[in-house]
Amino acid sequence: MVGQLKTREAVFELRVQLQTDPVAMPVEDASIVWDEALSIPIPVATLTIGVQDVDSLEGLTLAEECETMAFSPWNALAEHRPLGGINRLREAVYLASQAKRAARS
After folding, report:
1. What pLDDT shows up at residue 28?
2. pLDDT tens digits, 67-92
3. Do residues 79 and 46 share a domain?
């Protein structure tokens, strides 16, 4: 990523799949691949990371600043929060990571 960002931006398209069949698309079984014919992935956002020198003094300063920030998909409306057991586990990992990073600063 560091090498790519020196010369070109990185672009990520974020998509969601709506559960259209609770039997064929169970939320609690992450091993089941949801059939895209039953629910076509819908683009909801594009994340663009611009060209930059991550290893520069400015880049390192920004990286240090980012370490103090916390992101959690659970800071959302209840109907937009992640579902399923894997995501409940992820929430605990996010909180532990935030606490660890906050303790270092």
Report:
1. 92
2. 777 777 888 888 888 888 888 888 88
3. no
Residues 49 and 8 in one domain: yes
Which residue is it, tokens 């909180």?
Answer: 95
**Residues 2 and 52 both lie in one domain:** yes
Q: Are 39 and 17 in contact (CB under 8 A)?
A: yes
pTM over 0.90: no
The set of residues, in sequence order, having a beta carbon less than 8 Å from that of 13 and lying 6+ positions away, is 43, 45, 46
Residue 75 CA to residue 81 CA, distance in Å, equals 8
In the chain, how many domains are there? 2
**E-assigned strands of 23-78?**
42-49
